[in-house]
């Protein structure tokens, strides 16, 4: 079993109690997830009388020692040495039957020592968005935090306008970030960095404990996790929106869903986040930002990986050479992901151009990214009524030329492979926004639960042709998303 986060020095956290709310009510409870964790009985089911009160922060049971984590972070490239959980409180670390620890965290549970001028609350919109998107990402097989529950607070949260408040209970293998290491390096020095690194190795990467250079291998391993994660995002058209270093998990999970979105028409420069005015975190820049974040991670561990008598120049050169291996890691993962999307089980670098040519066609003809790939299965079927990618083109001739070349490359198992990796459904912005508006303005959750249920089976071909699978029309399009802080 890994040691609890509270075994670290208090330098890394502050104990804090959630702030009670006026009238907590259930929005959703994820019973299958609860069943997979060894939770205390009081929160193992929404049927327990105390559950809604505990997950709203109104009751702190005897088994809980709530705390918020301290960390630093580069926000849009600018370093802030003192950030931390401004509206998130870890209620407990649940231990599974196999000894794995999971953070059970309340997001929007009130002020903490790191809130600065914030109120520590969340409007209902970002809670519903994170619940829908994180659970969908899980069904896609993307490493991610999970949504255990959502509770309406009965209070109001003031942002640009007032909105009902809510609290999300989320589950993560940990909430340790690149920014946590930056905090240790900038505020605590080598001793604190080593304490944190040893803890992360024990909790997430125990196989590194006996490595010859464990801290150097830790950097490499986290880089590999990030390359794998971001390539998976890219293969789904997912845009995180705020890839600050404090939103980058060292466990390789998608974390801190804010103004995230899935693009519809393929556009490599797509941005949704209201605060990303210059497109730093646009779709096609995500792998570059991931590498940039990994460089900051390597800097934070620099003193731990220094060899005896190694000069600063030699150390920097060695770490730079390591970080420069990231593009190759990412490109290998990208090729595997996108190769599978077009039915190639073992794509080679020679197939890269074939994939890029298809993406160029999608961009030039404004093709929906999700349906463009999913409908490729129909191009291999003989039924005339099959959904096929060519149907999405006003002039299919350029696509048909590409298809001729592609059909010479795919094997007999291509359809099954493509069906496994190309979803029919994604959380389309206009449907998510419609669910939020219904909850926010009318206090109704029917649309949210209908969408949540459908997104639990996103690869099911029975969704083909359904309303939820269709792109937004002109008046429905949602081009801007918000994080709710």
Automatic annotation (TrEMBL):
The cofactor named in the record is: Mg(2+); Mn(2+)
Give the EC number(s) under which this enzyme is classified: 2.7.7.-, 2.7.7.108
Signal sequence, start to end: none
Question: What enzyme class is recorded for this protein?
Answer: transferase
Catalyzed chemical reaction(s):
L-tyrosyl-[protein] + UTP = O-(5'-uridylyl)-L-tyrosyl-[protein] + diphosphate; L-seryl-[protein] + ATP = 3-O-(5'-adenylyl)-L-seryl-[protein] + diphosphate; L-seryl-[protein] + UTP = O-(5'-uridylyl)-L-seryl-[protein] + diphosphate; L-threonyl-[protein] + ATP = 3-O-(5'-adenylyl)-L-threonyl-[protein] + diphosphate
A GO molecular function annotation here is:
ATP binding
Question: Can you tell me which residues bind ATP?
Answer: 84, 86-87, 107, 119-120, 170, 177, 256
Ordered alphabetically, the record's keywords are: ATP-binding, Magnesium, Manganese, Metal-binding, Nucleotide-binding, Nucleotidyltransferase, Transferase
Annotated active site residues, numbered on this chain, are 246 (proton acceptor)
UniProt keyword Nucleotide-binding present: yes
Biological role: Nucleotidyltransferase involved in the post-translational modification of proteins. It can catalyze the addition of adenosine monophosphate (AMP) or uridine monophosphate (UMP) to a protein, resulting in modifications known as AMPylation and UMPylation.
Q: What does the sequence similarity comment in the record state about its family?
A: Belongs to the SELO family.
* Name under which the protein is recorded: Protein nucleotidyltransferase YdiU
Q: Which organism is it from?
A: Aliidiomarina taiwanensis
Gene assigned in the entry: ydiU
């Amino acid at each position: 079993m890994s040691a609890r986060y509270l075994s670290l020095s208090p330098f890394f956290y502050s104990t804090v109690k959630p702030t009670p709310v006026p009238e907590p009510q259930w929005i959703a409870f994820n019973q299958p997830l609860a069943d997979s964790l060894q939770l205390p009985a009081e929160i193992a089911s929404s049927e327990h009388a105390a559950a809604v009160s505990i997950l709203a922060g109104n009751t702190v049971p005897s088994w809980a020692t709530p705390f918020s984590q301290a960390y630093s972070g580069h926000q849009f490239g600018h370093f802030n040495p003192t950030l931390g959980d401004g509206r998130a409180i870890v209620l407990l670390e649940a231990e599974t039957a196999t000894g794995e620890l999971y953070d059970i965290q309340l997001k929007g549970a009130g002020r903490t020592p790191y809130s600065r001028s914030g109120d520590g609350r969340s409007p209902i919109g970002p809670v519903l968005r994170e619940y829908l998107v994180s659970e969908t990402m899980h069904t896609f097989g993307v490493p991610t935090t999970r949504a255990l529950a959502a509770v309406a607070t009965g209070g109001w949260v003031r942002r640009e306008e007032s909105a009902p408040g809510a609290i999300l209970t989320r589950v993560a293998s940990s909430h340790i970030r690149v920014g946590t290491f930056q905090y240790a390096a900038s505020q605590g020095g080598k001793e604190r960095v080593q304490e944190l690194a040893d803890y992360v190795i024990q909790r997430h990467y125990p196989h590194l404990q006996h490595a010859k250079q464990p801290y150097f291998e830790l950097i490499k391993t986290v880089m590999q996790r990030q390359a794998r994660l971001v390539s998976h995002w890219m293969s789904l058209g997912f845009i995180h929106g705020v890839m600050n270093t404090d939103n980058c998990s060292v466990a390789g999970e998608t974390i801190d869903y804010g103004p995230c979105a899935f693009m519809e028409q393929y556009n490599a420069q797509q941005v949704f986040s209201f605060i990303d005015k210059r497109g730093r975190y646009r779709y096609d820049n995500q792998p570059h930002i991931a590498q940039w974040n990994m460089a900051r991670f390597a800097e934070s561990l620099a003193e731990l990986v220094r060899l005896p008598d190694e000069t600063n120049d030699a150390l920097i050169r060695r770490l730079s050479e390591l970080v420069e291996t990231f593009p190759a890691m990412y490109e290998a993962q990208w090729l595997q992901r996108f190769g599978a999307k077009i039915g190639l089980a073992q794509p080679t670098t020679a197939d890269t151009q074939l994939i890029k040519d298809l993406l160029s066609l999608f961009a030039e003809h404004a093709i929906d990214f999700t349906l463009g790939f999913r409908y490729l299965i129909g191009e291999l079927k003989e039924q005339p009524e099959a959904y096929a990618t060519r149907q999405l083109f006003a002039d299919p001739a350029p696509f048909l030329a590409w298809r001729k070349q592609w059909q010479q490359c795919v094997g007999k198992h291509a359809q099954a492979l493509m069906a496994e990796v190309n979803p029919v459904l994604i959380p389309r912005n206009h449907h998510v926004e419609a669910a939020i508006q219904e909850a926010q303005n009318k206090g109704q959750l029917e649309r949210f639960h209908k969408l949540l249920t459908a997104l639990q089976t996103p690869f099911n071909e029975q969704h083909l042709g359904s309303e939820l699978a269709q792109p937004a029309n002109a008046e429905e399009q949602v081009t801007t998303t918000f994080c709710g802080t």
